[in-house]
Every structure is written in C-alpha cells, then in structure tokens.
Amino acid sequence: MGKRPAFEASTHSAHSGRDTKRPKVDNSYERNPPHASGTGEEVTTARDLQNALFFDQSAQGDFRSGLNLFKRFLDSILYSTEELHLPRKRAILREYLDTQKGRGGDAKDGLFLQNLTQGWDHAVETNFNAIISQVTAVLALLLKVFASHGEFLAYGTLLAKTLLQPSVARRFVRSTSAAPKEENVIAPALRLLTELTKFNNGAHARAVYAKRDFTLDPKILGRNINLGREQSAADHVKKPSIRTTAIRYLLTHLRYQDERAKSDILSNTNVVRAIFDHIRTDPPFLIYEILDVFKNHVFQDKTIARHTKSRILNGKALSRIASLYSYEVEQGSLSETQKAPDQLAHDFLRLVCTDPAYGVMLPTQGFYPSTPDDVEGEQDDAPVYGHDLGLESADSYAKIGKVRNIILSEFVQGQRPYANILHQELVVDIFRACPELVADYFVKRRDFSYDPKLTSTWIGYSAFLYRTIQLPVPEHFGAKKHYREHPPPVPVLMDSILPQPLNQQVLSKCLNHNSELIQLFAIRVLIVALQKLHNVIQELNKASVTGSSKHWAQAAKRLVSEVSRRCPSIRTVFLSLKRPGLKGMKRESITRLLRLYYEVTPQVALQERFDVSLPLCNALVEAEKPSTSPEDKVFRVMELEHWMQMARLSPAMRWWQKQKSLEYSPFVTLLRLLVTSKEDELYGGIKSLLSDILRDQEMLQTKTSPDALDALIASLGSTSGSTTPSTEVLEFLDDCCSRFTKVPMKYFDDVDVMRARAAHSATEVGPFSTLLMTLVEQWPFKGGETATSNLADCLAQWLSRLMYLLKLIGEDEAMLGHVRDALVELANPAYKGVLQDAFLWKMGKERAKEALKLATGADFSGSERSSKSPVPPEEPEQNKKTRPAIDLEEPPVEDEKHTGLTRWRKKELGEAIDDGDVGELILCLCSDHAEIRIQAINNIRQLAAAIQSTGRNEPSKREAPEGHLCHGINFELQQLYLLLGELLESVDPTGAEAFPYVGGALAARCAGIVADPTLPLFSTVNRFLTTSPVWDVNSLLRFFWHRIVASQPDDESTYHEEVNWYLDYLMDGLRTRADMELFRRSNIFEQLLSHYTSRSCAASAKDKVVRLLLRATHVGGSTTLITRCGLITWIQMMVGGNDARQRALKILASRVYETCDQNKVAAWSSGTIEEIVASLIKGQG
Prior knowledge:
Blueprint: H1 6-9, H2 46-52, H3 60-78, H4 86-99, H5 114-125, H6 129-148, H7 153-163, H8 166-169, H9 171-176, H10 183-202, H11 205-210, H12 212-215, H13 218-225, H14 233-238, H15 242-256, H16 259-266, H17 269-277, H18 284-299, H19 306-310, H20 315-322, H21 341-352, H22 397-400, H23 406-413, H24 421-433, H25 436-444, H26 456-469, H27 490-497, H28 504-511, H29 516-546, H30 551-566, H31 570-577, H32 584-600, H33 602-605, H34 613-624, H35 630-649, H36 666-676, H37 684-697, H38 708-716, H39 727-742, H40 744-757, H41 771-778, H42 780-783, H43 793-809, H44 813-826, H45 829-836, H46 846-856, H47 877-882, H48 900-903, H49 909-914, H50 917-923, H51 930-948, H52 955-958, H53 974-986, H54 997-1010, H55 1018-1025, H56 1036-1045, H57 1055-1069, H58 1073-1082, H59 1084-1092, H60 1099-1112, H61 1118-1123, H62 1127-1136, H63 1142-1155, H64 1158-1165, H65 1168-1180
Pfam families: HEAT_URB1, NopRA1, Npa1
Domain URB1 C-terminal: 919-1130
Domain URB1 central HEAT repeat: 650-826
C-alpha cells in the first residue's frame, strides 16, 4: 500500500473532502468551500453554465458552486415540474454541450466536457474528495438526462467515449477503492459506472467491461458489495448504501453484457456469493432486483454454460436465500402489486433447485442410486455391480444408497417443512424433481419422532409426509427411454411409499388415538401410501412384462411384503371402524382404506379371514335408508362400493346366504337396490359386481348383448303400477338362486335332459340361462295346481316378462319354448294364459322392452311381432381385431449368462432365498451345458456348507447331540439344508446328465416354501422331504397331484391357492421332451382334463390348464394329447358346452393338430380328427 498523501495526513485537511450537505464537525473546516449562492440564482443562457463550470485551480470554491448550480439545473430538466420551461432548458443545455466538444466538432482530437475532466483530474491528484464526489455525481446525473431524452443521445456517446479513455477511466479506481468511510466518494462513482453501462440500452457495456481493470476490479467490487449498513427500507430509498449501489452496478452488467462477459463475471464466485451472503439485510426492492436479474439474465440464459451456473449457488448461498422465508417486511415498504421477499425467494428456489439446466441440480436417475460411472448424459445402462440393488435389505441402504445431488441433500436437511408451508412446498418440489432424495432425507432425519401428539409441529409434519407420499412415480423409475434390466432398490421404493418415520407401531398408535384429527391424518396417509404402492406395483409388473429379468417380479413381491410389515394390521383398522358415532367422511375413509388393503395387499387382508358379509349387509341397509342431506347419501353409496369391492375380493363372501339384518341375500339385495335406484350414476359399480358373481356361477348367460342380467334387471324394474319389485318375486328369485348355487350340477343335467328331449345337439343350442331350470323346478310350489298361496299372479306376470325379454335379447328360442311349456304344464289354470302368451308382444310388455332399451342402448325395433328371436349382435370388426392375442406359451430359453451361479453369494442367505437366487442356482442343474451343471453342483455344496456353518458359533448349538443331523445349523434353515442334501443325492454327481426340469423346478419352488412356515404348502413339502433321502423323478408329479389336488385339503380356504401353485409348478417344469415323457408316464394330462370339468376347478385354474396344454405342443406332446388323452374330442365337448374359453380352446385344437404326427393321427382316428378340427376352426372364424 502506498503512503498516505500529505493532504490526507494533515490534521486540518482530514475533513476537507466533505460535501456541502454534510454537517460541520468540531475542529474541522472545509478547504475552498463553495461560495454561497442565492436560492434564486438560475441558468438563463449557456454562457452562465460556461462561467460556472470553468475550472481554475485558484478558484476551486467557485468551481464547486458551479457544480452545485449545474446539478440543480440538471435536476430541473430530469425531474421537471414546469413543462413550459423544459424546452428552453434543454436548448440551453444543448448549446452549452456544443461548446464543450473537442476541436473539430468531435471527441477524436480532445475530451468532451474538458472543464469537468480537468477538475476531476486535479481533485484526484490533490486528494480533494469533495470535488471528486461532486464531479462524478454530476456526470452520473448528466448521463441520466442524456438517456431520458433522445435528442441528447449523441452527446451521451461523446461523454461515454471520454470517460472510457484510459486517462479518465483510471480515475474510477481511485473513487471506488476509497476508504470504506468515504461513502460520498464511492457511491457517486458507482452510480456513474452504472449509468455509463446501461446508457442507450447497454451500447457501451462491452467497452466498460473492456476497461474492467479500472471499472470492474473483482476485489474492489467484492469489498464494496460487503459495505452494507443497517437502515430502514425508507432510508435505503433516500440514501442507498454502498452495498446497494455496488450490487446495482453488478446487476447492470449482468443485464447488458453478452454471454462471454457474463460468464467471466460469474466466474468470480467471491463477488457473486457476496451478494447472497447478506441478502437478508437488503431492502425488499433490492432483493427483487437481485433475484429477478439472476433468474432472467443468468439462470434462464441458455447461452451461459451449465458449469458456469453451477458455481454460483452452493449450499451456503441456497441457505442464505432460504433465510428470506423469515424476512420481516416493514409496514408500508411494499406496494400492493409487489411480492414479499419470502415469496420471491420461494419462486426463485423452486426454479433453480428443480431443473438440471440451472446448475444446482444434477441430472437425476429417479429411484436408482448414484454409481461411480454416472455421467450427465444417458444413464440407461446400469453397471454390473448394481444389478442387485433392487433386492438389498432396508438396513443396508444407508451404506450403498449414495445420492448425486449432495448440495440439495444438505440443503433440504436444513429446511423446516413441518413449520413453514413455503419450506414444505420447496422440499416437496425438490423431491419431485429428484426422487432419489426422498429416501436419503428420511434416512438422515431419524431424529424426528412421529409419535402422535396433537401439536402444530406434528400436524405440519403429517401434512409434509402426506404430500411426499403423493408424489408421482417417475416414468421408467427414472431411466431415460426404457426400463432398465433390473429394478430400483426396494428400500428406495419403500421410503417413497412409507417413509422411515411411519412404521407399524406409530401408525397403530395414531389409529387408536383419542383425537379424531390424529386418526384422520393417519388414515389419509395410509390411503395415499397404498394408492402409491398400487401404482409402483403396476410399473413393476409392466417392466416385468417388457423385460426378461425375474427381478422385477421379485421386487414387486418384496415391496408388498415390506409395506405390509410397516402398515398396521387390518384388524386394527377394523377396530377403528367400530368406534361409536363414526359417520360421514371419516367412516368412508376407513372403508376406503380397508378396500385398499384387499386390493393392494391381499395376503395381509385375507390372513384375518374377516367375514365381509355382515358389514356389506349393514352398508346395504344404510344405503336404502332415506338421507337427510345429499352429502350423507354420497358417502353411504361410496362406502357401499368399497364393501362391494372387498366382497368381490374376499373368497369367504357368502353372496347367497340371507343375513338376519337383511330381507334377502346380499346378491338379491344389491339387485333390488340397482332396480329401485333413481340415481344410476351413484350405483354404477353394482352391475359390474353382479356380472362378475354370475360369471363365476354360470347362472345366467353372458354371450348376448344385452345379456341375461340386463333382461333380469329390466323384468324386475317394469312391474306394473309399482316402482319397486314385488316382495314375492324377490323372495322367489332369492330362493331359486340359493338352490342353484348349492347343487348347480343338477340343473346343468336338467338342461342336458331338456336338450335331449328336443333332439338338439350341444352345438345346435344357442345361448341359454341355466337359472331357468331352477325357476321351472320351484314354480309348482308357488303357482302350481297344489299351491296354497294366491299370490302367484305377480310371479306369473314376472316370469312372462322375463321369458319375453330373454327371447328378445337372443337366447335360444327353442329352449325357451320348452321352458315355457314346462311352466304352463305345471301352472295353476289361472296362470296358464299369462305364461302361454309369454313370447307375444302384447300383455303390457312395452314398459319392460323400453326399460331394457334405455338401460343397454339396444335397438329392438321390428322384433316385437317376430316369431323368431333376433340374431344376436355380432362383435364389431374393430373389437375383434383389438382382442388380446392368445399366448402360445413357448418354453423359456435358458439364460446364457447363468447369473444364478454367483448371485446368491452377494447377499445374506435369507435374502437370497426370498429373492429367488437360490432357486435360480438350482435350475442351473437342468442346463444343457455340462460345465454349468458341474458348477451348479459345486455351488450347491458350498451353499449347504454355508448353511451348516450359520449356527456353529451360537451357544445354544454347542450342546446339541453329536449325531444330530442338523448339528450347528440355524433352525430356520434346517429344512433348506435337508432339501439341498436330497437334491444332491438325486442328481448325477458328475454332471454328465441334465436333471429334468420336473425335479429342478420343484426344488427351486420348494426352497422358498421351506424358509417360511406360514405358507400353506409348508407341511406338504416337509412331508415330501421326510419321505425319502433320494427323489424319484418319475413319481414327483403323481405325489403332489394326490397330496394337493386329489386329496381333502387341510384348510379349505387355501385349496385353490395350493392348486394354482401346483399348476404353476407344472408349467415351470414342462420345458423339454424329457419332461414331456415324465408327464406322459404320470398320466397328468388325463387327470387335468378331468379336473377341468369338475365344479371344484376355479376359473384361474382352467386358464392355467389351457396354457399348460399349449406348452405341451412345443415339447413334442401333441400326438400324445390326441391319441392318449382324446384332447380334440374333449375340446369339441367343451366348445359345445359353451365353455367361457372357447377362443383359447379352438386355438389349442388348431395348434395341437398342426404340431402332431398327422399321418399317425389320421390312421388312429380314420380321418375324423381332421374334420373335427376343421369344424372348430371354421367356428372360430
């Protein structure tokens, strides 16, 4: 630092640089003070300005007085209150400026306004701060006048060129670097530079930047930006601080410079960050200018590189901006249209923190964690060591779950989303843009307890959790274009659905709390969590279909299991529903939650074996009661829909059993509610539920459009003189439906008998509703000759309408005629006429026809007097084309990577079992390659050794008997150890022969069962393992057939689940011709065809049998299926019996015949098989 000049060191001259406006201090005096001038002194000619602004070193006081006079003159032009004198003043100024040009009329040969520049030079040389301050202030004001009046733009250009000449520009350094206490010197210079930079829309901004050594020194500017002072917003307007003036100068450059200059300026992070370090102390107008310029001219400027933007805002700067959320605005400092600083900061942070283009946020991968190979471009290919990230335990997430957006991760940790609504919106927006931060946030914020307390903090945190869970699932889970090969980590998905604070204990406490508000918060959180789980499972299933990896399905299963552990038990939710006085929205919310349990986590809901019949009946009773308000009616209907959906999903639902609280069975009660309701839009879900129930029972046909259910509803709703169906009709229908469901085979046989009497074959009979046979059987007890009741008239009328409508929709007229004749034959003479004319259009059936037409949109014009039934409407061509294609079930191809050989080593044993890695290892025994089989045998032996060593160090194992088989083995893994031992004894130890998939698939599936004693098949598999130490592959299929399908189940509620497991095992085990040979020896296909036709075979099991038969055609089983099992004739019989899978069966027939030995089949059948297949294919077309 240079020595201080003598002038500054002088005691008498220490204060000589002060402006005339500043008060005089004791023991100080002004050097060459301005001469007093009267207030009435005015500028009347240009000569007055020339005389006043003439610089003479010996008359510096006069020069200062002239500067004051010139300043007042410029103020009168810039802020004129007298418009009449303004043209004259501008003319005087123009005349004066013309006299101040350099030689030759321009500034090429000299300086513009030489008197002012000479005075400025002399003041700098003599350290005369007062003149320096006055000259720079007058020049800044003069430039402002030039900018506001277009006629002076040329003069402004001359002045700008003069100021930017090196001899003048270097004077800026002297002013801007003055001592911090000399504000009167620094501020005018900064104002002059600001006006110079923005003059004429930044025409000289580049030239100013070119002289940046004098005009934009980073150290000087950074120091000035930090020179702030505490003062009110009003004082900031009257006399801005050095910080305010310096920031405005910097912002001017950011407005008018090009991208290169701005990038260079922004690279000086000390200057830029100095703006944000003290932004909380700035006035509202300056905060607005700062954030507006950085938003519009920096972050949204696409020409500035992203890496330049990324250096502007670090975690500290973001925190400083976020501190504006608690900014206290002085009263009257904001206009009505001006935003408060907290809202300005909120909008700014939401912009820069949620888009990678602005530099703060790094490109995100959604739910996938960060890896060392990540780049900011395409990230669709996960590294090899990341393949198992979708299946690790929740505890290990903290070790491997690294995030890329470290700045945002630290920033959101410092926010208080539970206490400030703007904080909450910001954090949620950041979570939406960076899903990876959700799990990271809650893993690090374990200090907050969610134990229910009715405080503002707890309520705010609940709202924050609710909004976080509500966030949508990223497309492809964050991958760029398509799903990756493996799913995201389950813990990351888990924390996005139910964050860490939400566990079973806490949520159960909330549901059992005395406060209704806490209960409602917990219910809402659980509802949105299960809805999000449903969306995630849909995405996982979609990815599983499009990809070949099994990890997607495993991740979905694991995720449901993890969520089930964190959710309260369904019993807790049921108990909260039983609280007294529960009505309206809260009751509907609880039933909605129960419905989601059944839909999303059925294994949890069905464990309780809760009978849905009673609450459904209660909901039906409530729905039929008159309501006091429309809202109550809507809530009742919504609650009824929830119970109906639960009943549809509950296997224990008794649809046909009459409850004490209901007049009819639940099915007929729903039917009555649908018929009598005047608000069809409220009960839209009832009809689809009734259709599903009837489809399972095969009570009413569904082949026509409208179908038999539509006809039944129309017949009940068209009773003459009444808006509700007759009680006798409903009781009769209820009784008939109940009888049908108890012994359905009897009525199917009755249909066959009636068809035989009419001499019709199965293929000649059209659509027909089997329930009619029950009506025929029960009709004599109500309207027969021996009937004692005289109330059968309404029954006869209803039967007549029903028969008419069934004929109208296209049911087989011949069969309907036989039904009518049977009813007439058994009827009392009083009702024979009504029934005899059932098919005639008279008898007041117009209302029934119109009701059916209104409900279904069908057109029956011209068919009233027809003697034949109208042709059922054919399916439109576009619908035929959009029907899903039947999968021909080709066997899966062997994975050439054989990742199952090593993946089990990367995880804990329990985790490897749950994820199916042990099963994949076992399937390697069935590989076509001998070296793979040998490796599989060695790996299984190592796995068995690892299991054996799991409990050797446990004290409880040391005293075990020496000869015990499972000495030193963890009890939970004993059965798996036994399974692996028997498997090794059953395979070829040399690996020379492949193990059949019939055995490999069984071992792979049993590995997951023996590890979980709660599974239904646990006891069956353990009986099998204790039967023999070596497996006889030839008897495996028969053993499990007799144990699962052909035997009385231990638990009737799990029978269909066990059968489905067995059929899935058959599907997985049939992959090669060797497997097909084992199937043939075991006579499995004959038994499956027999089981298909039994009443105990569920619809899902029938679908799987058809799929298995299609699989057999790929492994050389077609000829065996035709000649040994009679498959073609069996298909003909099923199609003739109107089986619901006719299209799949016809494709199966075509596929079997195409792949069989046709010569052998033709010789065996004398050519009849070819004719049958041709007729089936023709029927398909």
